[in-house]
Structure formats: C-alpha cells, structure tokens
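2024-03-11 09:14:02 INFO worker-7 job=invfold-0412 stage=load source=structure_tokens
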C-alpha cells in the first residue's frame, strides 16, 4: 500500500501521486508547492520539475550511463555538473564548471587515499584493519591516530607531538587528556552522559551534571561555571521552557498544532501558513515562489536573502545595505564567503568543515572520529604554526569552552534553548573567535545565521530559512530544526530526527521515511569504516551486476541463469546431482549430474568476462584453446573465482563441494568466435 495523502494538525494536506511501478510521479507539499518526476524504463530519475507559486518552473535533468551512474546533471539555470568514474565504478571527479573541481583517488582496497578540492588536498593512510591511521591536512599538518587492539581510539598526534589521549571502556569514553587538562566522563544505564568533570592534575576546575526525566528528556543541568538550568516539556516531549538559576532570563516556547515553534521573546501575534512563518509581532517574513525566505521586514528595516537555482543562499543583504556573497561546490558545500571585500575560503572532509583560510587567519577543525563533535581547533598555517586549542562540549556536542594547552579558557559561551548565543566570554589576551555551534553549524557574524551544510538555520526563530530538500524523508515539518533541541541534533540540515548525545541513528517518522525520490547522485566519498565499506561493496556489486546483465542480454548468454552468485545453494547442488537447470528446475533426459559452479560475487563475475573479452585488444590470442565440442574458450586463473559441486559417482545424492575454485572458463560460439555464450568458475585442469 502506498501513502497518498497526509493531513497535518493544521488541516494542510500533503499529496503523493505514483507511477504504475510505485515511483513518486508528483508530490504536493503542505504549502501547495508541486514537484514532478520523470523516470527511464529502469526506474531511474531522468528529470525533476519544481513548480513555483508564481507559475514558474525549475527543471533539473539527469544523464546516466548504461550502468545507471549519473554522468551529467543539468541544473535549472543551464549549468552542468559532470561526474566521472574509474573502471571499478568509483567516483573519481566532479566538475560543476566553476573553479572548484573535485577529485578522488583510492587504494587497491577501495579506500579513499587522496581528496583534491579547489585550493587543497587531504591524504589518508590506513592501518591493517582498515581504520584511519594518518591524515595529512591541506596545510601539510599531520595527524596520526593510535588505537587499542579492539579498535578504540587511544591517542591522536599532531605533527609528531601528542594532541589528545583517550580511554574507552565498553565503547564509551571515560577519560580524555587535552593539553594539561583531564576530563572524566560518567554515563547512566542508558548510555547518556551523566557527568563531565574537568581537572588539572588532581585539582578540580569545573563540572557539569545531567539529569533526565522518566521519559528520557533532559530535565536539569548543574553547571559549576554557569549555574543550574531546568527544562520543561509538553506532553509531546517538545521544549516549552528553560529556567536559569543565575542572571539569564527565563525562556518560554509553545507550538502550533502542526508543530511549528513559537518563541515567546517578543509580544505580539503569530501568523503561519503551510508551515511558513509569515509574521511574529511586528516582524514580517516574505518567501519566494519555492518557499525560501527572501525578506525580513520590521518597519522600514529590511533584511534580504537571495538564492540560486538550487535554493542555496548566495547573497545576504543587511539592513544597512552591506552585502555578503556565498559560493558552493558541486555537492552544495560552501566554499567561500565574501564580506566587505574580504573572502574566507572553506575546505571540507566529506560533510565536515575541516579548514578555513583568509588574509588574516588560517584555522583547521578536528572532530571526534566518526562524529560531528568538535575536538580541537588549530590556529595558524602549517606544521610549525598550527597552535592547538581544545573543545569542551555539552551532552549534545555543543561547544561550551575552548582552552589552550595550559588549560586556560580562551573562549566560553552560553546559549538559549535553540542555540542562540546569549553570553560570550574571552580570556588569554587575544580574542579567539570560535564559530562552531550546534553539531554541524557554523556561525556567520555578518548575518547571525548558522550555516548548517545543506541549509541555513536562524537561531532567533529556531527555524530553517528554506524547506528541507529531502522533503518528507526529513519529517512532516519542512522548516523545523529538531523535535527537541535538548535531545536532538541535525548536523547536515536535512533531517530533524538525529538523536544527540550517545543515542545512535537518524530517521524520519516511520510512516514517511520511505516516501522519497532517489535522484541517483553519487555520495561524497567518506573515510573507511564498516558502514562505508558495506556501502561501497553494495554499490560496486550493483554496478557489476548491471554490466553482467548487459553481457547476458547482448550475447544471449546463460552465465547468469546457471552461474551467478545469486543461485540458491540447493539449486546449485541439484545440478550436480541430476543436471537440473538452476533457473528453470528442468531436468534433462536422461538425468545426469554436471559440474555446477557459481561466481563468488558480481565483481568477480564481471572481471572474468572482461578478461576474456579484452584479450585481443591487449595483443593476446583471443582464445586459449577449445573444448570437447571445438568451441573456442578462454581459460584463465582468477583467485577466488567461485565455488561449486562436482558429481559424485559413488554417491550421486552427495556431490563433492569445492569452496575454492580459482580458475574460470568463458565459452564462445564456434560459428562466431567473438560471441561468448557462457562463463563459469572452474577447477584447474
């Protein structure tokens, strides 16, 4: 059963229309905006058309190769993004025609080893277990990761000197040393952070204790630096109040029936429609035809936002007329901003901002491995100048303090419930500005906004400026930050359902998570991990399978039907018993067992076919011999080719199993020796 309509608590409707094959053909949002999709015969997206409120259209077209890989994406403004792959189907370059091409290199194990983008390069090295061992940053600084026998992180070195040390027990970090400071962490039975204490040697400096309600919400924080904070929630676990024991005003929140946040910091009415905030008190908000916030008006004061054809913010105009320009790479990552003629360039490691450079400063950002939680800031360019400062975070990974090697606090902040800076303190002489906020967010001083990878977050309203680009896959409210800012984070600006702290996983509500359109765009190459390894294997297998299917169809072969890795075990065995066709189950007359084999996987299967078909092009004899029917064959060694059964003359019901067939054979039609008709793993003869 396919979901066709959703009505939210405000009475707005979201409608979905499908193709006969169950693909989304058109969706109409709660705000009335339509998006239509066209597919090829294989169900791959060919064209996406967005319809604006004013009758305008924005069309994005997708050109793919025979394996279904995206080759060219043509944007609504006519610009093209070109994607290139190597022989194994790995993404090796992306070029959007601007001055910021992206290139990727891999080792023999499909691990990313070099990442070029614009003005810099990242280089990776791995240990024997495939975990990241070395990382060379764009400024040539070197990081080395040390791990215990089980794989847990024990230390990180920067340019040959110890940066941090870590102690993990049961998968949770218990202790950390950053410069001369030591941190001790304690957790409750559900793995939530319960206490974080900071000391210098044996001298306690400060401590934070966290308490949670029976239903899992953060109830209280006792902070020796900033005092006590208490949190209040409604029956739907949404934050409704924050009470501070010290000099910070209480905060109050409510929500409309559709879950839109209403911050009670300004007296006056609210007006929302289709989840768009149109008015709050004397502030008025205007949107373009695609739901992007373009103006904030208060009397004669106007703040303006301008977007490109992909709904990315490209210009911010302050009330005084000062303009800031923003640019992005082919994956939508912000690569620079220009404020008052001064440009800051940004460099990325996947979805993590890892460096920024301007005429006045150079900084690198390091994160806890496998997360968006910042670990250290390196101030200065190059191994000789990079000076480390250390992050101290709350339970969600939001920076609370930044300390130097000696342990002195050089930056400290307090926040409102939805992430707006309410108090900022500096120490240590020179004021070091630290822009990281909620996980994945970067504070822009010129606008007060937080750049959040795919969107911009407005901490004044607790909302995004633009609707979620993943539509329903991100939840029912396209502008909402998270269901609850004390227990959730959104490091990519895509889904408001990413639990913070130590709770794993990101998801949309169960009833809408699968309601999405797959545009088939390649994802950013990421660091080696089991998840990434599995993803690469899955993609490589899918690509190899498509190409083997192409061989099967082009030459009318039966290599898939009789020898693919997807043949069930019993069918494979039965062929060695009585000759039954693994595909149809038909038994020949007279019944007679045959050698029955299958390739290990689709990549091995494709490799065998490619080796056989490319011999003549490589200057080799096109065939290595003939079979008993005088059909030309290619027989070659291929370690790990597959497995199979050989008939057992003494006990026909129990054929001999060979798990290690390290050769393969491809048979060709003697009437046309260029046409193969089967390929299979074989034993050495």
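2024-03-11 09:14:09 INFO worker-7 stage=emit residues=685
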């Amino acid at each position: 059963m396919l979901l066709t309509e959703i009505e939210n608590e405000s009475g707005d409707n979201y409608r979905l229309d499908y193709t006969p094959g169950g693909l989304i053909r058109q969706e109409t949002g709660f705000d009335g905006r339509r998006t239509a999709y066209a597919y090829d015969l294989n169900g791959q997206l060919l064209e996406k058309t967005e319809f604006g409120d004013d009758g305008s259209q924005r069309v994005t077209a997708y050109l793919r190769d025979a394996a279904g890989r995206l080759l060219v994406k043509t944007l609504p403004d006519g610009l093209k993004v070109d994607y290139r792959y190597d022989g194994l189907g790995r993404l090796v370059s992306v070029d959007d025609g601007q001055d910021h091409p992206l290139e990727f290199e891999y080792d023999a194990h499909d691990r990313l080893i070099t990442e070029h983008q614009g003005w810099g390069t990242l280089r990776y090295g791995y240990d024997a277990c495939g975990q990241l061992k070395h990382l060379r940053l764009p400024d040539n600084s070197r990081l080395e990761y040390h791990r215990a026998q089980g794989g847990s992180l024990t230390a990180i070195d920067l340019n040959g000197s110890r940066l941090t040390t870590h102690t993990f027990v049961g998968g949770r970090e218990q202790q950390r040393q950053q410069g001369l400071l030591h941190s001790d962490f304690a957790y409750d039975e559900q793995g939530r952070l319960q206490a974080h204490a900071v000391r210098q040697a044996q001298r306690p400096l400060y401590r934070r204790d966290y308490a949670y309600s029976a239903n899992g919400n953060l109830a209280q924080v006792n902070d020796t630096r900033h005092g006590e904070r208490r949190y209040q929630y409604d029956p739907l676990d949404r934050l409704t109040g924050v009470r501070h024991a010290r000099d910070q005003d209480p905060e109050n929140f409510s929500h409309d029936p559709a879950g839109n946040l209403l911050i009670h910091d300004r007296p006056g009415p609210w007006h929302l429609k289709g989840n768009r905030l149109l008015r709050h008190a004397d502030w008025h908000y205007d949107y373009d035809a695609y739901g992007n916030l373009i103006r904030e008006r208060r009397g004669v004061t106007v703040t303006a936002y301008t977007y490109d054809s992909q709904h990315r913010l490209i210009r911010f105009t302050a009330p005084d007329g000062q303009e800031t320009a923003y640019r992005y790479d082919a994956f939508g990552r912000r690569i620079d901003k220009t404020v008052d003629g001064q440009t800051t360039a940004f460099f990325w490691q996947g979805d993590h901002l890892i460096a920024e450079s301007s005429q006045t400063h150079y900084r690198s950002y390091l994160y806890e491995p496998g997360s968006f939680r910042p670990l250290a800031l390196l101030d200065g360019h190059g191994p000789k100048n990079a000076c480390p400062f250390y992050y101290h975070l709350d339970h969600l990974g939001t920076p609370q303090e930044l300390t130097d090697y000696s342990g002195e606090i050089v930056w400290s902040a307090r926040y409102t419930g939805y992430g707006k800076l309410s108090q900022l303190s500096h120490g240590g002489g020179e004021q070091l500005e630290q822009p990281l906020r909620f996980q994945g967010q970067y504070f822009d001083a010129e606008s007060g906004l937080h750049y959040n990878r795919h969107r911009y977050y407005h901490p004044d309203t607790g909302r995004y400026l633009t609707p979620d680009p993943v539509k329903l896959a991100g939840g029912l409210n396209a502008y909402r930050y998270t269901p609850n800012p004390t227990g959730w984070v959104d490091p990519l600006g895509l889904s408001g359902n990413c639990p913070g702290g130590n709770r794993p996983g990101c998801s949309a509500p169960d009833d809408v998570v699968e309601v999405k359109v797959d545009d088939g765009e390649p994802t950013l190459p990421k660091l080696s991990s089991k998840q990434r390894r599995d993803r690469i294997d899955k993609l490589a297998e899918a690509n190899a399978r498509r190409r083997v299917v192409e061989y099967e169809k082009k030459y009318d072969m039966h290599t898939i039907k009789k020898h693919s890795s997807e043949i069930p075990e019993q069918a494979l065995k039965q062929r060695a018993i009585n000759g039954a066709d693994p595909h149809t189950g038909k038994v020949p007359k007279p019944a007679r067992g045959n050698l029955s084999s299958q390739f290990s996987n689709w990549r091995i299967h494709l490799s065998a076919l490619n080796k056989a078909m490319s011999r003549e092009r490589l200057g080799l004899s096109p065939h290595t011999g003939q079979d008993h029917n005088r059909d030309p064959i290619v027989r070659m060694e291929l370690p790990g080719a597959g497995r199979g059964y050989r008939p057992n003359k003494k006990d026909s019901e129990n054929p001999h199993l060979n798990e290690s067939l390290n050769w393969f054979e491809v048979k060709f039609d003697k009437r046309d020796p260029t046409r193969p008709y089967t390929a299979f793993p074989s034993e050495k003869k």
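2024-03-11 09:14:09 INFO worker-7 stage=report msg="The CA atoms of residues 14 and 29 lie 5 Å apart."
2024-03-11 09:14:10 INFO worker-7 job finished
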